[in-house]
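Figure 2 data, in text form.
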Amino acid sequence: MTTGGPLAAKAPFNLKATVRVLQRRPANRVEVLENGAYRRLFATPTGPALAEVENRGSIDTPDVHWTIRNGSGDDEQLVDRLTSMLRLDLDPTPLQQLAESEPALRPTTKALRGMRPPRFGEWYEAFGNVIPFQQVSLEAGIAIVGRFIERFGEQLEFDERRYHSFPDPAAVADARLESIRECGLSRTKAESLQRIAGLIASGELSEARIAALATEDAIAELKELPGIGPWSAGLVMLRGLGRLDVFPPGDVGAMRGLNKLLRLESGDELAHVVERFGEYRGYLYFHALGRSLLDKGLIQPAPEP
């Protein structure tokens, strides 16, 4: 049975730009943008559920709706997850105003108008979307994670397309290490992904417990996990828990993109800009990613309001 309803979204809201930044690349197996609608397969206790989100209005007058296209699950839980992932609960005004206060950022800020800084959909997904990307290109990381998803995630055929959910940590914890490595991971990365999967599956590493900590304490605890250094901990906090007060330290791609955007010549200058953004410094990371997607034609500039 198909179920659905409206989702509250304060204007402006740019669904396409938000999903593109969530995907990082269209080859993402889990996050699907098709004909203007966002589709995502969730693994639920009653089986896989294919959720769809579309904006039937515009960026400035959003009319956002969710639908379960196939499968079943706890509707309230799925709605909460979609709201959290797309950051529909976030007021975009302070972010927009702060970004526009930097003259060099204004053209990009206007082009990305309504883009929210999204979160990964599941707790284990934050680690599974960070560890494989360590010291490899974005394209290589996407390919590795794609194989990981195909091997260990659930699948659903619908509308002449195959959809994938992100792997359940219990499935990874119980897998042979060699089968994880065959996705293209080094032994160290495969062991880290499996050990963290076991900690999450057992309840020892809970999202709620880490989310309840102050940012510095949470980062310190994450860095105690196998395979998690400062950069990885920062990304887990930013993209996994939505902590916008975190800018991942040493993120070469984001720093290079921001230096170009802001026309800066030194890391010290960039550090000053990051600090000026204060509790929203993580938004700069999404700005750099959004600019690169604009340049590739994967995000279309928002129309003038």
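Caption note: The first strand starts at residue 3 and ends at 7.
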